[in-house]
Design a protein that fits this description.
Elements lengths: L26 H16 L4 H8 L3 H13 L3 E3 L14 E3 L5 E7 L3 E8 L4 E8 L5 H16 L4 H4 L2 E8 L7 H4 L3 H4 L7 H6 L6 E5 H12 L8 E6 L3 E7 L2 E3 L13 E3 L5 E3 L6 H10 L18 H23 L6 E6 L3 H16 L10 E4 L6 H15 L11
Parallel strand pairs: 3-6, 6-7, 8-13, 13-14
Antiparallel strand pairs: 1-2, 3-4, 4-5, 8-9, 9-10, 11-12
Helix pairs in contact: 1-3, 2-3, 9-13, 11-12
Length: 408
């Protein structure tokens, strides 16, 4: 579902662990984050290009980039010759500049990923369960952190800058829908999962709604052509998403903007339902169970769903219709450039859902509404875990997209 509380909360534990030169306060620290944000967004850049984008003097940019290179956050590329004057030297993000843990806590499975500064997954641990219990999640997190830290050197471990948690909020409201005993799920009412996880490592810990985190992953690590205003859907056990305006995730007055799963949609039969009822993996699970098939394999691996083809086709068509209706409804309120669809599923299934949504949208009444393109997300099934990792990354190394003063 959408963000149900203000998204980011961080533990005090470990705030000074990553105390390097780029941790200085004031304008210089802000400018360093601005430079890192621009290089992340545009790829390798020279000091001349950054000066033009930011309005900072060439001397100031040169000092900042030299500091970031010394801190191990930027890498110097080969000089680009052939123009008048000194050769241009592009600088890019250093993969080993920093590392982040991302924990995705879902209704059927959990993932812990260790991600480098460029968004590459260094290692990942997957855990499947019938329903999430706090003590099991904490135990899994501890074991996963221990296993993943063995994949990097001592020097690299020292550059781990934080841990993010992407999870559904108010889990206790979903006991019946996930087939869990109410008393077991009620344990989440009194569980401070952020504090529990923070005891496992000397790191700052952040928490955000899982669908919002997936949207953040698209913003920070996505490969699509940059969009300023778009609607984002992530299809997990439940469907959720986010609203991006002016290049930033829009949380809204209470933090609940982007609760797309709750959006009313009309099915092909004319009945009104919530999007969560037709475009979630939970609905596919129900269809498989009703036909006597084992639905548990949906959560073993998102790369390969060996399930009944006819049921899958029916679900794809129904989900596509619901998503198209949701896109059309949202576009009547905000003039989005595009709607992106991603989720815990094979790439071919995602492509089929996007095709179905496009097909259904073409046959809907769009009078008075600017056409909205429906595209595939570019991060993939790992978006929630990667989105969790963006929480410490954004807090520590990035500025808001709206802070970019000039574009190239």
């Amino acid at each position: 579902m959408g963000t149900e509380a203000l998204p980011e909360q961080a533990s005090e534990q470990g705030r000074d662990r990553f105390n390097r030169g780029s941790n200085q306060s004031g304008m210089r620290a802000y400018n360093q984050r601005l430079v890192l944000s621009l290089v992340r967004r545009h790829g390798a850049l020279s000091k001349t290009e950054i000066a033009r984008m930011t309005g900072l003097s060439a001397q100031t940019v040169s000092v900042i980039m030299r500091e970031l290179e010394t801190d191990g956050l930027l890498l110097r590329g080969e000089p680009l010759r052939g123009k008048v004057g000194q050769p241009s030297v592009p600088m890019s993000l250093a993969p080993e500049g920093a590392y982040f843990f991302g924990l995705k806590l879902g209704r059927r499975s959990a993932d812990m990923a260790l991600v480098d500064f460029t968004g590459r997954v260094v290692g990942q641990v997957h855990h499947v369960y019938r329903y999430p219990k706090p003590e099991d999640i904490v135990r899994f997190a501890g074991e996963a952190i221990a296993a993943l830290t063995k994949k990097v050197t001592a020097a690299q471990r020292d550059r781990v800058a934080g841990l993010g948690i992407a999870m559904p909020f108010q889990l206790w409201n979903w006991a019946e829908m996930i087939g869990a005993p109410q008393e077991a799920i009620d344990a989440w009412r009194s569980c401070d999962i952020r504090a529990e996880i923070a005891t496992l490592a000397d790191l700052p810990v952040y928490v955000q709604n899982d669908a919002s985190s997936a949207c953040n992953a698209e913003l920070v690590f996505g490969q699509a052509v940059p969009l300023r205003d778009f609607l984002y859907f992530y299809i997990g056990f439940f469907v959720g998403g986010g609203v991006v305006l002016n290049g930033s995730l829009f949380a809204g007055r209470t933090g609940n903007a982007g609760a797309l799963g709750s959006m009313p949609v009309t099915g092909s039969d004319g009945a009104t339902r919530q999007l969560i009822d037709v475009a979630s993996i939970a609905s596919l699970e129900r269809m498989l169970n009703a036909a006597g098939h084992d639905a548990s394999r949906l959560y073993d691996s998102p790369d390969n769903w060996e399930i009944d083809a006819a049921i899958l086709r029916q679900w794809i068509d129904t989900a596509g219709h619901g998503l198209a209706y949701a896109v059309l409804s949202a576009a009547s309120v905000i003039d989005f450039e595009a709607a992106l669809i991603d989720g815990w599923m094979p790439v071919r299934v995602r492509a089929d859902i996007v095709s179905a949504a496009r097909r259904h949208l073409e046959h809907m009444n769009q009078a008075g509404i600017e056409p909205v393109g429906i595209r595939e997300g570019t991060v993939g099934y790992n978006a929630r875990a990667l989105g969790a990792a963006t929480l410490p990354l954004s807090e520590r190394f990035l500025v808001d997209q709206n802070a970019f003063l000039k574009e190239p």
